[in-house]
Model the fold of this input.
Amino acid sequence: MTTGFSQVLDYSTRFIELIGIFVIVIGIAVAGIRFLRDRAEDGAYHTLRSTLGRAILLGLELLVAADIINTVAIEPTLESLAVLAGIVLIRTFLSFSLEVEIEGRWPWQRARRQEPSPATARRRNPA
Done:
């Protein structure tokens, strides 16, 4: 790989990492300001946790993207691939945990609620 292209990829991954960190920091600030403004209302704490969780999730996605670009395009070694796999597993677990915290239920429970059962569908559309 040429040195110029490698430098552009390195700068790109650093920029994406900075954006990820920026998203998390701004999300924390926005969540804190909203909480302080609306703390007397019902659900203010839930809104705080939800806003924080969404900011962290988005930031983690950007950080994982930067890690993937860095590992695959810049340093394609078995060791760096193993490190990437560990990072992705940890961040995926964190993302999954945060999503469960935000939504208050498992992801597959949401899918079941949206799909009508066959008996319900027959009652709605009798043939």
